[in-house]
Amino acid sequence: xxxxxxERCIDEFGSDIYRFCLKLCADKTxxxxxxxxxxxxxxxxxxxxxxxxxxxxxxxxxxxxLWKSDRRKQARRNMIAPCNNLDDETEALLHSKExxxxxxxxxxxxxxxxxxxxxxxxxxxxxxxxxxxxxxSIEQISAxxxxxxxxxxxxxFKGRSLIKKRLEDAGYERTSx
Length: 177
Hints:
This protein is an all-alpha fold and 177 residues long.
């Protein structure tokens, strides 16, 4: 893959890949590193992009695989010498004109859902992020995580159910997830 193709990819769907990296890493610095690694890896490889197919899914898959590889590497390092990440997740501000109490409740709910998603097993976490935050279709997610569409649907359902149950256990009213 050459630099012009990479530039075109960044222009067309770079922001989607960055959002995906941000949701996977839950840390802006790590997400930026993953984003750069994704496009550098694509530049290093000898791929020929077929623009008729879905090149965006290829980059989602590449980012996901790099993230999984990094998590394995960090797990091995933590077994040898544990360390803690002290950075807090940056919280998006809501730009709503509703009352202060409702805004606070919404922020609290969003924070709680994010924390729940981060604690879910990876097999539920990745499809939820791809479907709801990156607007990927079931078929695209299936290609990215290399599982059948039925498995993706099942994991989305189970992931939503787990989030709903944990929210109810935490005392939140019934939410429409």
